[in-house]
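Checklist before submission:
- one chain only
- standard amino acids only
- sequence pasted in full

Submission:
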Amino acid sequence: MLGHGDVGHRVVVRHRVGSQATDALGELVAVSESNFTVRTRDGEVAVPRVDVLAAKRIPDRRARSGTERLESIAALGWPAAETDHLGDWLLRATDGWTARGNSALPVGDPGLPLPEAVDAVVAWYTARGLVPAITVPLPLGRRLTAELDRRGWSASPPTLVQTAPIDGLTGPPDPGIRVTRAPSEEWLAAAGRQKHGLPEVARRLLSSGPEVRFAQGNGPTGTLAAIGRGVVAHGWLGISVVGVQPEHRRQGWARRVTKALAGEAAALGATSAYLQVEAHNEAAIALYADQGFRTAHAYVTRRMA
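Returned file contents:
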C-alpha cells in the first residue's frame, strides 16, 4: 500500500466506483487517513481508502524509443486537418483522405486503461463519421495489438518506415528538377492521379508542415516527368508522394527527385531522411535500398470491423 514516502511519484490506484472498478493514474499528491489524492490528466482525484482495490508506484515516464520519436516526427510531416490528444496518443482526422491522416497514433500513455482508451478512440472517430482506426507501430503495441485482435479489428498490410543519412542522398544541383515552396497545378494534378483524388483538405495537408518543399521534374519536351514532396522537422527530411509518370519510368527520375529534396533539406539543417513504403512494393524498396535506405520499423493500420 502507498504511504507518505510515495508522494510526488507516479502511481496507479485501482478503486471501486459504484459496481465498477477504474484506475486513477498520475502523480500522488497527498496521503491521509481516509484518502489518496492523485493528480490525473483530468484533474485531482480523491480516492477513499475503503474503495481501494490495489495501489502501487509505477516508473516515472520513460524516455521515448527511437521508433516512438520517429513516428511523432513523421506525424508533424503529414499534419492532419483536425487533431486531438488522448493522453499522449494523437487523434487525426482529414475527411477520410489517407490512412495516416485518419487514424490514431498510439505513442506514449493514453492516460486510461487500454480498453477504455480504445473505446475513446472509437467514440472520437464515430462522432466525425469516420471508421475508427489506429496506426500501430511495430514491434511496439503488443498489448494494443492483442486488444484489437480481441475486438476483431482488421489489419492493413504492413508499411515499412525506412531511414537514411542525408549526406548519402545529396549530389550536385540538378537543373532538371525544380524545388519550390508551393506546388504547381501540374504537380497537384499528378498527385491527384497518384492518390486517387485530391480534395481541398488534401491540398491543405500537403502544403502544411514546418518546412515543406515540392520537387518537380520535366522531360526534354517540357512534359511533367516526376514529382515528390519533402518536409523538414527536427533535423529529419520526410519524403512522400514520389511519383513518376508512366512514360518516364526507369529513367532515374525518382532518384533525381529524392536527391533534389535531400539537397534542399541539408541546407535547412536536416541530417537524416525517412519515408514510408508498402512492404509489398518490391520495386520501390529496391530503389530506396540502392540509395541507402534501411528499414527502421514497420506499422499496420487497424480498423474497427
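Reviewer check: Helices lie at 66-77, 114-126, 142-151, 185-194, 200-207, 253-267, 282-290.
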